[in-house]
Write a structure and sequence with these properties.
NUDIX_hydrolase-like_dom_sf, 7 strands, EC 2.3.1.82, aminoglycoside 6'-N-acetyltransferase activity, three-stranded antiparallel beta sheet
Length: about 140
């Protein structure tokens, strides 16, 4: 079984919204996710997060702190995964899809109420994201 390593960036703005991307292959239904992707070469998890957020959204970010590590197995893809989640802050750049994989179709800031109803790429992240909002209140 192959092992996949990646990073995800949770970015909350001053309006209490989280940065989300609409993703999917051209021929499949699109779903929402926080910006994320796989490590390349000898990148650290932090470097991966910074690169992936920039590629998917155009924003330059800084890491505030590590939030959690999600590990699991995808039977469908015959791989185990380890994803590091970081709280991040936008420090520059501008909203622009520049994903080299062509999988990102939209970028939006979503409220807590919207996240409750979104079709997520990783449904298991919903509770985690809802808890992030609750911590801010």
């Amino acid at each position: 079984m192959k092992k996949w390593f990646g990073s995800s960036g949770v970015c909350l703005n001053s309006n209490g919204e989280v940065l989300m991307v609409l993703q999917g292959k051209t021929d499949e239904d699109k779903t929402w996710s926080i910006p994320s992707g796989g490590k390349e070469g000898n990148e650290t998890f932090e470097e991966c997060c910074i690169r992936e957020v920039h590629e998917e959204t155009g924003y330059d970010i800084k890491i505030i702190k590590k939030l959690k590590v999600k590990e699991g197995i995808s039977e469908e893809h015959n791989l185990s995964y380890e994803v590091h989640y970081f709280l991040i802050q936008v420090v520059g750049g501008e909203r622009n899809v520049q994903d080299p994989d062509g999988l990102i179709h939209d970028i939006q800031w979503k409220s807590v109420n919207e996240i409750e109803d979104l079709v997520l790429s990783f449904p298991e992240d919903r509770d985690f994201l809802m808890k992030m909002f609750n911590r801010l209140e």
